[in-house]
Design goal:
The protein is mainly β. It has one domain: Immunoglobulin-like (Sandwich). Helix content is about 10%, strand content about 35%. The chain is built from 1 helix and 9 strands. The longest helix is centred in the N-terminal third of the chain and has 12 residues.
Length: about 160
């Protein structure tokens, strides 16, 4: 089952420059985001984007071209920009949030989704910025939806 989902997601993601979420490593051109929460993936049409759902406090991994040759002393920032909100929801009072607890590895960065007030149920656009002595690089890591922690499998308390 997981390999069938992987095959469909990989085939659909090629050329879309978007991110894909599956039960294992995600595949996309430009950027890859991986979370530990498996999602059901339906067949995609051209131009569709798979938008993973993550909970505040959850750790995710992002891999993209801007991180390929990053040295440990480079400044890497992951910025979440609110791109849509549920109908009738008031603005949370900010447009961008910085993801925290960056852990840089070769070609990827792991960050924690911020536990920011009123961010639940919003869709965010994810950008990665890398600043080094050679200059600045960035990559588009696609979109993700921030879940209500109490309703997300990773956020439920036992």
């Amino acid at each position: 089952m997981a390999s069938a989902r992987f095959g469909r997601a990989a085939a659909a993601a090629v050329g879309l420059c978007s991110l894909a979420l599956i039960g294992g490593p995600a595949v996309a051109t430009g950027a890859v985001v991986h979370t530990s929460t498996p999602e059901s993936i339906a067949p995609l049409s051209s131009g569709d984007e798979v938008v993973p759902v993550v909970a505040p406090g959850e750790e995710i991994g992002i891999a993209c071209d801007a991180l390929q040759y990053t040295a440990p002393n480079n400044d890497v920032r992951v910025v979440l920009t609110i791109s849509s909100a549920p109908s009738g929801t008031p603005s949370p009072g900010y447009k961008k949030v910085l993801a925290t607890n960056e852990q840089l590895t070769k070609g990827a960065v792991r960050v924690t989704i911020p536990e920011t007030p009123d961010l639940a149920n919003h869709t965010v656009h994810v950008d990665v910025y890398v600043v080094s002595a050679e200059g600045a690089r960035d990559c588009d890591a696609g979109h993700m939806r921030i879940a209500d922690r109490s309703k997300h499998p990773k956020g439920k308390q036992s």
